[in-house]
Amino acid sequence: MRTVLILSGLALLSSWGSAVADNYVRGYTRGNGTYVQPHYQTAPNTTKFDNYSTKGNFNPYTGKAGTVDPYKVPSYGSYGQRR
Asked: Cβ of 51: how many Cβ atoms within 10 Å?
């Protein structure tokens, strides 16, 4: 029972810690007319490993596991846009 309480407390602290470092992004319309709904994202930094969308991580707002491979190099189109 004691182990369950400790693990529950650690899970609560880790989810609280990630929520503190999150940034709220207001909804906006892209140049092509697509509307992006308001959402939370991890605080900007120089690593790809702590983003919610990265494999091995979990998004507490959507309940989904990350799927992006942090080691994959993005490919760019002829005008510098991601493909």
From this structure: 16
